[in-house]
Amino acid sequence: MALNHQRRTDKWWETEYSDNIHSYLQYHEVKWRMVYGARSPQIHLRPVLVKTIRSIAKTCEMSNVCVHLAVTLMDFFMDNHDLKFDTIMLVSFACLTLAAKIEEHCLKIPKLNTMQNVISKDVTNSHFRKVEMKILMFFEFNVAVPTVAHFIEFYKDHFFCDSDFYHNEFASILKDKFNRMILSYQDASLESIKLISYNPSMVAASIILTTRHTLGLVPCWTPQLRKVTGYLKKDLVQCCSLLGRNVMQHRKFVPIDEGYLSSSPGFQSPIIMASKKKRSHIDVPNIILSKRTAF
C-alpha cells in the first residue's frame, strides 16, 4: 500500500535516504578519483572549452550538475591524451552528451548539428559515436561520478542556522545573496585547474564555508555543517584560499556573468604522478584506443 504522506521528489538530497546517499557519494569520489597532473598540451584551451560547454548547456536548459560532470570528464580525458585542435572541441562536446545522458531528460541531450559551427562539417554521427565510445572505454564505462555540484545541493540545505536570522526582515535579502554567491563560487571552482585535485565534496564544503565567511555569518563553520560534511574548518583552509584567490582574479579580469578565467598552463598540481605515462594521440579520421593511466 502506498504511503501518501511521503514526499515524492527527484532531488535525492530531499529524501529520507539523503545521508546514506551522501556517504556513498563520498566513498565513490575517493574510489573513482584519478590523479590530475595538469599536463595536457592543450590546457591553454580549457577556458574556451568550459565556456562552450556552459553555453550549449544553457541553450539546452541543462542543469549545473550536468555541466560539472561534463567538465570533469573532459579534464581527466584531456590530461591523458594529445588532441588535435579540430578534435578537442569534438571531445568536449562528447563529454557533454555523455553527462547529459546520465543527468538529464533525453529531450535535453544536444545533437551534433549544434556544434557544426565549431567542428569539422565532415564529422558524422558514426564518427561522433566512436569518440564517445573512446571516452567511455578510457573511464572503463564508469562516468557517473560525483561532482562539486552534486554535493553543493545537499550542503545548501544545511547552510543556515537559527542564529543567522536574528533580524527576520533581513532573512529574504540574506537568502538571495546566498543563492547568487553560491552560484558565483561554483562557477569559479569550475574554471580553476588548481581545484581539480581536491575531492569534490571538499571543494563544495569550501564553497559553503567561503560563502558564510563572505556574508559575515558567525560562526562561519557551524557544528551542523561539520557533522554533515565530515570536514573540520581547518581541513578546508587551503581549498578556501585557492577558491578565494581564483574569485578575485575572476572579478578582476572577467565580468561575473560572462564565463571563464584563463588559468596558467604552467601550473603543476600539488599531486603529481610519480611516473608519467606516454599519452596516446587521437585524430579525427583515426581513433586509437588508449590505456587508462595507472595511479
Automatic annotation (TrEMBL):
It holds the Pfam family Cyclin_N. Transmembrane segments: none annotated. Keywords: Cell cycle, Cell division, Cyclin. Residues 51-137, 165-245 form the Cyclin-like domain. It comes from the Eukaryota. Belongs to the cyclin family. This is Cyclin-like domain-containing protein.
